[in-house]
Design goal:
- The chain has 379 residues and is of the alpha/beta class.
- It is built from 9 helices and 6 strands.
- A 6-stranded mixed sheet has the order 1-2-3-4-6-5, sandwiched between helices.
Length: 379
């Protein structure tokens, strides 16, 4: 006969299992439902945000001015590395025109230019912008760098960038695949103050002046100094390099508009620069990059200031130590001199009374002898 107590235990376990099953099922269903609700809510929020962004962009597009209407200062000009990079990768004609001027070749000779390191604004908010690396006619590499601040290590850095650009083959590939490479720096800084020049070309050459031959013409560095337009040669003017230098130097929309007259490529550049200065999204990225540079510059200045103060403090402490050391040394020397002087003075003060007493006695003796002589005469 089955024990009633055992039946009750079995029944209780069965009820517990069923309850746990239904509880877990209900919890799973609730979780799935909640995730579905959250997903739909996120989708709805994203849709709303996109609609708002589109509305703002449409409004901005409606309010956007053209280059002909722009006036005043260009806040983010073409000398800003992000503006330059983003503008040139979007305007192939302008890029061809710039390379034609920098290389001194007719624009008709340029059949193709490919930007090897294009950027997207969303990925380059505060990061350092890479130089513009371009493959020219599939056979040559042009690496263009903007240098608008003083850099102590510019020479070393430019060599490194040029070498990186020249190293365009993978491991195991033939050296015949290497391409002619020119690193071009556009700057407003004085790289070599003793050798002012508008457009300088540097190549590897034999230092023996009797020969003076080039080691290679497939690797070089050019420097375009925007501050030395007056030193431009006739060839620079004919190559339109002076014209491009003025485009880079333009700081107002009025200057840029004058340069763009009759040149559709520069007009396109002007409109792209204007877009980046007026588009809300692009402008936010430019301002973020500027703030990042300001923070870095402030941190560098603060580090220099703290280091200078710590150096002064250490210098003072070392000076005190050296001073104390020198002081002790000089003190000992002076002490010895003073000791000798005091010793002499003390000796003199002690000997003089003795000498005077002896002199007195000698005088008394001489007086007695003199009286004796007077009384008895010489013996």
């Amino acid at each position: 006969m089955v024990n009633l107590k055992n039946l009750m235990v079995i029944f209780s376990l069965w009820i517990y299992d069923k309850f746990r099953f239904f509880y877990n099922s209900a919890a799973l269903a609730a979780k799935i439902l909640l995730e579905s609700i959250n997903t739909k809510r996120k989708d709805y929020q994203m849709k709303e945000e996109r609609q708002k962004e589109n509305a703002v962009q449409n409004e901005a597009n409606e309010r956007r001015i053209s280059l002909s209407e722009a006036t005043g200062k260009i806040e983010f000009p073409l000398t800003d590395d992000l503006v330059f990079h983003y503008t040139m990768q979007r305007s192939k004609n302008a890029l061809k025109g710039l390379i034609s001027a920098l290389k001194g070749i007719p624009i008709e000779y340029i059949t193709d230019v490919v930007v090897e390191n294009p950027i997207t604004l969303s990925a380059n908010g505060k990061e350092t912008i890479m130089d513009l690396k371009v493959t020219l006619n599939t056979s040559e590499i042009i690496n263009i760098e903007l240098q608008m601040y003083n850099d102590t290590f510019w020479i070393s850095r430019s060599l490194l960038y040029a070498c990186r650009a020249y190293d365009c083959i993978d491991e195991g590939e033939s050296y015949s695949l290497l391409k002619k490479t020119t690193h071009i720096c556009i700057t407003d800084q004085e790289m070599f103050r003793e050798y002012p020049e508008f457009y300088a070309h540097y190549l590897l050459t034999n230092t023996n002046k009797s020969y003076g031959n080039y080691y290679t013409t497939d690797f070089g560095i050019n420097v375009l100094n925007l501050n030395h337009i007056k030193l431009a040669t006739k060839q620079d003017e004919e190559n339109k390099l002076v014209y491009w230098a003025k485009v880079f130097r333009a700081t107002t929309w009025e200057e840029l508009k004058i340069l763009a007259e009759g040149n559709p490529y520069i007009e396109e550049v002007g409109n792209l620069v204007l877009e980046m200065n007026t588009d809300k999204y692009e402008r936010e990225i430019l301002e973020g990059k500027r703030r990042y540079k300001e923070v870095m510059a402030t941190a560098q200045y603060e580090g220099h200031r703290i280091g200078h103060e710590e150096g002064l403090k250490e210098g003072r402490e070392e000076g005190r130590k050296e001073g104390r050391k020198e002081g002790r040394k000089e003190g000992r020397k002076e002490g010895r001199e003073e000791g000798r002087k005091e010793g002499r003075e003390q000796a003199e003060s002690e000997l003089i009374p003795v000498i005077e007493e002896k002199d007195k006695r000698l005088l008394e003796q001489e007086a007695i002898i003199q009286k004796y002589k007077e009384k008895y005469g010489n013996l």
